[in-house]
Design brief:
Helix content: 10-25%
Order of helices and strands: HHEEEEEEEHE
Oligomer: single chain
Largest sheet: 8 strands, antiparallel, barrel
Structural class: alpha+beta
Radius of gyration: 24 Å
Number of strands: 8
Strand order of the largest sheet: 1-2-3-4-5-6-7-8
Length: 192
């Protein structure tokens, strides 16, 4: 008899624990958890660690990242490569499709600054010695469409497609400094 009472108490407690989060789940996950931390990779958004915040239908994201290897220990890497980007986003449509799956469609625009110091071979014969190339700054802006999938209420996977206009200041003509291209951006973050 004591075992049955204990089993019933455990079942009631487990049911309460399972039902409590379900009753607090009002609205889609992207509305209930408006902030996120994660990583982002993109020509407009920037590449690196990111912070993300939504308020009503407007979202803002900033991404910062950088790599620095002056010694050349990592042969494929440039000496310096950093990126700082920011995006403004506007929700067009969003919905929950199951308790574990939500998503939204949004428009975005953004601005990015990137700087690179390339590693160049110092010997034209292809010797392993390298030297620092010039510092090359670039500025990119653009716009596009994004899709965010939110899994299990917290794991966010954004995928963005858009047009980017990049300006790389140099001594060349403006026509040679400007490029416009179709880009893809992606990220992974945890919403809270």
């Amino acid at each position: 008899m004591k075992t049955i009472k204990t089993s019933i108490c455990i079942a009631v407690l487990l049911s309460a624990v399972v039902m409590l989060p379900a009753s607090a789940d009002e609205g889609p996950a992207y509305e209930r958890h408006p902030q996120a931390l994660g990583i982002q990779y993109g020509a407009i958004s920037g590449s690196g660690l990111s912070y993300y915040r939504w308020s009503d239908n407007i979202g803002f994201q900033i991404a910062l990242g950088g790599l620095y290897d002056p010694t050349g220990d990592i042969s494929w890497m440039d000496i310096l490569d950093y990126s700082v980007g920011a995006e403004l986003q506007y929700t067009v449509y969003g919905d929950s499709y199951a308790k574990w799956l939500a998503g939204q469609l949004y428009l975005f625009t953004g601005l990015n600054h990137r700087g690179v110091i390339e590693r160049k071979p110092s010997d034209p014969n292809g010797d392993l010695e390298t030297e620092a190339g010039p510092y090359i700054p670039s500025f990119t802006t653009g716009f596009g469409i994004g899709i965010e999938v939110v899994l299990f209420n917290h794991f966010s996977v954004p995928l963005e497609f858009g047009y980017a206009a990049a300006w790389r200041p140099s001594g060349a003509s403006l026509q040679d400094q400007l490029t416009i291209k179709l880009i893809t951006q992606a990220g992974f973050r945890y919403r809270f």
